[in-house]
């Protein structure tokens, strides 16, 4: 075992309770809230760490939270919404345009064998379902704006455009 693993294998809290940190990797940390949605999958994949919490964080999910927060603050201002979406354009289109960029298929809508067209179909279906099930009117507007923005690029195959230039 590495020195830091031995040194920090057990931590005693102020209340005298000991937390077993065996196998915990601070570079694969995730918030406990992600456990509720993926605990069985995480346990099956062996990525459960401290006190049964999922010890992975998705940078893509964190970035998506930042994007949705910005969009929520701009609800009602179509020009600002468009500016925000343009700023995040590459981030939003990356998994649709290039399947090679999907790092964690366990957490994705997409599978490795999907074509670009199939990825856009999966995106459309997922976003339509999210929009229809959203009870919050502002969240619904944000989801609709993201969906509509991304789908503007569905018929603009960037790989064909790059090949013809």
Please, could you describe this protein's structure?
This protein is mainly alpha-helical. It has helices at residues 3-7, 35-45, 59-73, 78-87, 89-97, 116-133, 137-151, 158-164; strands spanning 10-12, 18-20. The protein is built from eight helices and two strands. Strand 1 and strand 2 (18-20) form a beta hairpin. The protein is globular and about 40 Å long. It starts with a helix and ends with a helix.
Helix content: 40-55%
How would you sum up the major sheet? Answer: 2 strands, antiparallel
Morphology call: globular
Quaternary organization: single chain
- Secondary-structure-based class equals mainly alpha
The total count of strands amounts to 2
SSE order: HEEHHHHHHH
Radius of gyration (Å): 20 Å
Strand content: under 5%
For the terminal residues, how far apart are their CA atoms?
54 Å
Which consecutive residue ranges, at least 5 long each, have pLDDT under 50? 29-50, 159-165
On the 0-100 scale, what is the average pLDDT? 73
User: What topology, given as strand order, has the largest sheet?
Assistant: 1-2
How many DSSP H or I helices? 8
